[in-house]
Amino acid sequence: GLFVTDYFTRTPRKLSPFRSFASIELFHFHIPEDTVIAVWNLITFKEQGGTFGDQCPDRSITVYFRSGAPSVINPLHTHFPRDTAVPGSFALTLTWTLPNRTTGVFNVTSPLPGDWFLAAHLPKDEGKISVKGLYEECQYLFQPQLIVQRLVNIAVLYPGYVTEQSMAPHNRSCLYKVFVPSYTSRVLVEVLRCRGAEGCPLWLRVRAKAPPLHNSTALDCREHTPCQLALDLPFWQHWYYVLVEKHPGVPGTISFQVTVQLTDCSRPSLARPPFLPPSASMNMPHSFGSAGGLALGDSPPPMGPNSTKHPSAISTALPASERCWPVRPTLRNELDTFSVHFYIFFGPNVSVPPDRPAVFVINLLPVLDSGGVLNLELRLNVSSLCGENVTVFGCLNHEVPLTSGDNASVTCATESLAGFLLSVNATASLSRLRIPYPQTGSWYLSLRSLCATEHGFEPCTNVTAEVYLRAYLSPCINDCGIYGQCKLLRTNNYLYAACECKAGWNGWGCTDNAEAFSYGFQLLSTLLLCLSNVMFVPPVAIAVRSHYLLEAAVYIFTMFFSTFYHACDQPGIVVFCIMDYDVLQFCDFLGSLMSVWVTVIAMARLQPVVKQASVLYLLGAMLLSMALQMDRHGLWNLLGPSLFALGIMAIAWTARTIRRRHCYPPTWKRWAFYLCPGALIAAAAVLLYAFVETEENYFYIHSIWHLLIAGSVGFLLPPRSKPSRRLGPLPRRKGCGYQLCVNEQEELGLVDPAVASINSICTS
Questions:
Q1: Residues 602 and 540 reside in one and the same domain
Q2: How many domains is the chain partitioned into structurally?
Q3: Helix or strand or coil: residue 286?
Q4: Does residue 311 sit within a domain?
Q5: How many CB atoms lie within 10 A of CB 147?
Q6: Helix, strand or coil for residue 685?
Q7: In sequence order, which ranges of 34-95 are alpha helices (DSSP H)?
């Protein structure tokens, strides 16, 4: 055949340590039909400060692969909520081969067509809280690339017709495909008239959706005569691939014929009208074309040189035990993103007769519905059982209903089909099933009622069970409970939802309490963070006593909003919010920085130099508000105004020192008992905040931060300035044509009498 190679790539993204599914990076790919091999090239590299991160530590990267929907992963081995089905996925761990770069390869032979999802993350870390911009962090970037090789012009088999084929000596296999429509209960593939070698040395392999593999359903034609391979309960509305493979070491040309028969399980009264066009009757994909479909009873396509009509008819009446029952559709009602209800016509109470199953179909849209949770709930009306020991079994299967003729069967799986089993009876009248990230397409629910006897389950007689059926799509499981938050996430144009847990709770639905915080611990942490702000009361008293009323108002503002911000910021249930969270956070950050600003400006004692010192206070408030609006967690946006205030204080102190030729402040007691202890306490607080604080010790380290910052303000706030006793107020003298004005302000009690400000007013 002819191969075509396609190439796909995605933009590199920064990986994060795993905490929940909300912290992973998700990549979405689409594999076309008839793909024989898919190769993922997984590129990972380090960056630090815009350059290659050669000094960054090696951290393993885990990548998950799944077809049809995102992977449901559990790297922390937490517990899933009850009644939750966990689908499987492939996992791959990348190790580093170079100091700053590594590459991994993941091959999939004959992958399933459609959507494929890759999820990648770093291992869980210790949860250190780092200050943004303090140092260059190591970044681990991940970029997947996909290369697919697909076959074109694969020969199509028409049901009921024979295709002749000759396999040359240099060819090892021939590949075909046939489309299986809805209401097909059996696919029979047969190899006829094998000539050219003794014993027909051929392998017959069949697989749904993709070309067959070595472990696909196979039959050795040399050992079976006739060479027939039957598949019961095939997937509806999908391509089936047939591979005829020659045994190794067989010389010469082998000729044979291939035919496919489809068994229609629908009722005769529901047979397809013969006047419909072939593609409509068979419900073929539009890409197949009108000449490709052939329904039972339709006119055949034009005869090719290698095609002949099979002598046996396939549109025959079926016995009652082999018929499939009609499928009842559901009404889709979209309420919101991943909030979809599926209503049953004449429901939600459905009747399950004793002689036949009740089958329903739930259609999930491609891509749009795979990022949520499919919920199914069965509730038995016990009063409808009439005292009989009846059990209603429900089988949920993907892409084909499981309607076995064996009434005593209570399984929802076959050799090639897997499903989910639900059961309700008089003792347990409620059953639930949750499937996170379900595969899209058609899901079929088959309900059957059986009576329990001493010899197992047997068909019931004259008992029609009534079941309440509820099916819906939700973003998260139980909205993540009270200890989690359901987040709607996006990767490019794909939306999905995931829980982000808090207060030590873990799991897919935040139901694993192995590491959960107790109520007493939550209350203690909240009280520590809130009551530690009481340490601002002494600085407020000192400021009021020293007539620093503006500074005292800022400290009260900081104490108030810091207390209620931390009361609202708690992860558990001990939470109290008086305002919107964003408003409380802004006011808390603004009050903290304004406390530093007004304290440093007060230490500078600028009143003798700048007559309107309130200008600096107003300037600081505006600058800090702008910086917080730009980035509340950025280091330099917050450190810049603080350094600016320290620079003003340093200039003022240096000017006084030069003019007075004496160190300022002049007394050693001020340095030894106030400035040095205050500076050391403030430095210790900054070090704790920047380098020691983690998620585990946040509640008491941050409380210590509150105590230290408030204590440092009490030490650093300057004393009240006293009026000088050496000079009294000078009399105001007026003369003809001029007025002499003397500045009566003092500078720390020292004013040079020779320095005076004179304003001259000339008169005629």
A1: yes
A2: 4
A3: helix
A4: no
A5: 16
A6: helix
A7: none
CATH value at residue 232 = 2.60.120.680
What CATH number corresponds to the domain at position 667?
1.20.1070
Query: ∠ CA 114-120-121 to the nearest 5 degrees?
Result: 160
Q: Which two tokens stand for residue 14?
A: 């920064």
Residues of the chain with pLDDT under 70: 1, 131-134, 267-323, 403-409, 607-613, 637-638, 721-764
171 with 126, same domain: the answer is no
500, part of any domain: no
Are β-strands 61-67 and 51-52 bridged in parallel, bridged antiparallel, or unpaired?
unpaired
Tell me, yes or no, whether 661 and 692 share the same domain. yes
Q: How far is CA 732 from CA 568, 726, 727, in A?
A: 60, 18, 15
pTM of the model: 0.80
The pairing of strands 358-364 and 327-328 is parallel
Q: What does the alpha-carbon distance between residue 740 and residue 759 come to, in Å, rounded to a whole number?
A: 6
Q: How far apart (Å, rounded) are the C-alpha atoms in residues 407 and 576?
A: 58
**Of 236, 264, 292, which residue is a domain's last?**
264
Give the span between the Cα atoms of 99 and 562, in whole angstroms: 45
* Residue pointed to by tokens 């810091």: 562
Same-domain pairing of 345 and 242: no
Q: What is the pLDDT of residues 627-657, one digit of tens each?
A: 888 888 877 766 777 788 888 888 888 888 8
End residue of a domain, out of 246, 264, 282: 264
pLDDT of residue 562: 95
Alpha helices in 469-580 (DSSP H): 519-531, 537-545, 549-568
* Residues 15 and 61 sit within 8 Å (Cβ to Cβ): yes
- Domain hosting 108: range is 2-152
Give residue-wise pLDDT tens across range 339-376.
999 998 887 889 888 888 889 999 999 888 999 999 99
Residues 653, 533 within the same domain:
yes
How many CB atoms within 10 Å of residue 163? 20
For residue 489, tell me if it sits in a domain: no
Q: How far apart are the first and last CA of the chain?
A: 114
Q: Is 253 left (phi over 0), alpha (psi -120 to 50) or beta?
A: beta
SS3 463: coil
Is the distance from CB of 416 to CB of 402 less than 8 angstroms?
no
Same domain, 392 and 437: yes
Q: What share of the chain is helix, strand, coil (3-state, %, to 5)?
A: 25, 35, 40
Tokens of 115: 């959507």
Amino acid at 682: A
Tally the C-alpha atoms within 13 A of residue 496's C-alpha that lie toward its C-beta: 27
- Plot region of 739 (φ>0 → left; ψ -120 to 50 → alpha; else → beta): beta
Give a yes or no: residue 707 inside a domain: yes
Euclidean distance between CA atoms 279 and 69, whole angstroms? 29
Q: How far, in Å, CA of 420 to CA of 415, rounded?
A: 14
SS3 call for 541? helix
